[in-house]
Amino acid sequence: xxxxxxxxxxxxxxxxxxxxxxxxxxxxxxxxxxxxxxxxxxxxxxxxxxxxxxxxxxxxxxxxxxxxxxxxxxxxxxxxxxxxxxxxxxxxxxxxxxxxxxxxxxxxxxxxxxxxxxxxxxxxxxxxxxxxxxxxxxxxxxxxxxxxxxxxxxxxxxxxxxxxxxxxxxxxxxxxxxxxxxxxxxxxxxxxxxxxxxxxxxxxxxxxxxxxxxxxxxxxxxxxxxxxxxxxxxxxxxxxxxxxxxxxxxxxxxxxxxxxxxxxxxxxxxxxxxxxxxxxxxxx
Length: 284
Hints:
The protein is an alpha+beta fold.
């Protein structure tokens, strides 16, 4: 599941493959940009911004993409077989003499003037893995709506950028609060811990092929994807239920013993006690 650390890894791979090299092939397979041709232009850099990717190209252009739940960028050597999915799922191809980057299932793909990047990412809060990170601003953003459930506040990229459903569940566990606890009810000392803890989790995982929040080999996550298996701390059965604002429901995991606060009756259990894409990530 692409979150801030995964997107950071994707940006690093794309930057290594494309930056400072001239494009020999450009194919944007979305109707609005189907005739756009970037061949002959040099890629300047690939920069992550929260869960967004900004590929800057000479001539003042930026290719903006967002992976959402299922999107991915794969990088292939010359003559290497493409394995990211069927051809009809390809949304973008950028190639130079040495490498080919292929974007699969990209729900957001747009070509912008670099001076207009703010239209795509200007709404984002401080980036947990970016140079603009500011824990005080992030905390102030989170606490603007004290009645908002903690889990929903963490997922709102306008508060802080980079947290997805996995880190939401794991952070709530580490803070000892259910994702449904109003964020204003979180004790002040734990609220102050939230931004630096979130940053630490993403930083330690941005270089790992397998995401881990526990530090335990073979037990990578505390709660996410683990229902109905026992909690690693207290052995109570982990629970799962949907959380959302009505526009999109997300499976949310918690321990009813280790985490205090309101919670719904569990009405969705992950098949076999696991969830797809819990921690392992592709390395292409």
